[in-house]
Design brief:
By secondary structure, the chain is an alpha/beta fold. It has 2 domains: about 20-105 and about 230-280, 3-Layer(aba) Sandwich (D-Maltodextrin-Binding Protein, domain 2); about 105-230 and about 285-310, D-Maltodextrin-Binding Protein, domain 2 (3-Layer(aba) Sandwich), CATH 3.40.190. About 40% of the residues lie in helices and about 20% in strands. The protein has 12 helices and 10 strands. It has helices spanning about 5-20, 35-45, 60-65, 85-90, 110-120, 145-160, 165-175, 180-190, 245-255, 255-265, 280-285, 295-310, and strands at about 25-30, 50-55, 75-80, 95-110, 140, 175-180, 200-205, 220-225, 230-240, 270. Strands 1, 2, 3, 4, 5, 6, 7, 8, 9 and 10 form a 10-stranded mixed beta sheet that branches. Helix 6 (about 145-160) packs across helix 12.
Length: about 325
């Protein structure tokens, strides 16, 4: 027995060492941004290598995590928001809490330069986007795959009640463009960001104009700040993950002052904690003046998406 015992003990010890996680994986939407300095800081503090897995827009991210829940493709997630949280909860993909990391107000932005050059008065409300004056000028995102798209759909239901369906019919008749995700809408189709798109009105965020400040000290864009939808983005530990402790450590890092202070300039959203904001935000990234909410969004999701699909697909 004395000769056998060490032989059994050594593999057990080695197996224990081999199973110790050396990395942590986080699944995110495509708009997640983190600097090399922040990655280095987390890896130094935790001793873990950070792997970022980008899975499209928020809806696509959520659906991919649902489809892979029996064999999780990551340890943590970032980017499921209050419009898609119900899907995550129904499918049990999260272990523990949803931790708020940032928030933003989903509002329309318009290209100030376009309207000045064209001699057209810009809209003051998204309710005007069905007017003939703005025909063929607006780009939005698909609510099936995009959280801003679903947020705007919820906004119309909350603000217009039973009239929301006719509003969407009128919007389609006014030649609105629908893209699958926010990045395509904002960086490709919108004229006020890259300057190459054909659409001077885009579904985006109240804080987006802070990213479009030009050399003259003015922002090329402005946001419509009435009847916006407040979107909160969460992080959490995925159920069945290979490294839940590492995932929780990463979430705590994202709540820390170093990461939270970087959120505005990295992702142009408001940090969830009370940290100092960039000076320009007081002028170019003011929150919405009024917001709308649809408390029963989770219960009505299928209904309103089916209505949207019947109009656009």
């Amino acid at each position: 027995m004395k000769k056998i015992f060490p032989l059994l003990l050594i593999p057990a010890v080695l197996a224990g060492c081999a199973s110790e996680p050396t990395n942590v994986r986080i699944a995110t939407h495509d708009s997640f941004a983190i600097s090399d300095e922040l990655i280095e800081s987390f890896e130094t503090e935790s001793g873990l290598e950070l792997e970022i897995i980008r899975l499209g827009d928020t809806g696509t991210l959520t659906n991919q995590l649902v489809l892979s829940k029996d064999e999780p493709i990551a340890d943590a997630f970032f980017g499921i928001d209050n419009t898609f949280r119900g899907v995550a909860e129904e499918n049990g993909i999260v272990e523990g809490d949803f931790t708020a990391i940032d928030y933003s107000d989903v509002c329309f932005n318009y290209d100030r330069y376009y309207f000045e050059d064209a001699g057209i008065t810009p809209p003051t409300s998204w309710k005007q986007l069905t007017d003939e004056s703005y025909k063929g000028l607006t780009v939005i995102t698909n609510p099936n795959s995009s959280s801003p798209g679903l947020a705007f759909l919820a906004s119309t239901v909350a603000a217009l009640g039973d009239d929301y369906e006719s509003y969407w019919q009128d919007l389609k008749a006014n030649e609105v463009l629908v893209t699958s995700g926010w990045e395509d809408a904002y960086f490709t189709e919108f004229s006020g960001s890259s300057g190459e798109g054909d659409y001077p009105i885009v579904l985006s965020y109240a804080s987006s104009p802070s990213a479009e400040v030009r050399d003259n000290g003015e922002s090329q864009t402005a946001a419509l700040l009435d009847d916006c939808f407040r979107q909160t983005e969460f992080a959490g530990v995925l159920a069945g993950s290979a490294n839940p402790a590492g995932a929780q450590e990463l979430i705590q890092f994202m709540l820390g002052e170093e990461f939270q202070s970087a959120v505005p300039e990295l992702m142009y959203v408001y940090p969830a904690t009370d940290v100092e904001l960039p000076e320009s935000w007081s002028e170019f990234a003011t929150p919405a003046e009024t917001t709308v909410d649809l408390p029963d969004l989770n219960q009505r999701r299928s209904e309103i998406l089916e209505t949207w699909d019947s109009i656009f697909e």
